[in-house]
Write a structure and sequence with these properties.
about 0% helix, about 70 residues, 6 strands, mainly beta
């Protein structure tokens, strides 16, 4: 995910990702700021960007399907 602030003011950005069911795990890399599990299906990343900056981060989503949901 690439987030850019081209304005001369600092900004706060919230990125929400919704997943298809509640059995998931995330592995995050890079400058992702703060992350929060909003509910069973949603994660929120919050980044504060100074003027004229760009940040990149990535995440790997793992769904637990079938019998693995119970573990």
């Amino acid at each position: 995910v690439k987030v850019a602030n081209y304005r001369p003011l600092a900004i706060k950005v919230e990125i929400r990702r919704n997943f298809k069911h509640q059995y998931w795990d995330l592995t995050k890399e890079g400058d992702y700021g703060e992350d929060e599990k909003v509910d069973l299906f949603t994660v929120k990343f919050t980044l504060e960007l100074p003027p004229n900056t760009t940040r990149k981060f990535s995440y790997k989503l793992i769904y637990h399907e079938g019998d693995r949901q119970r573990q």
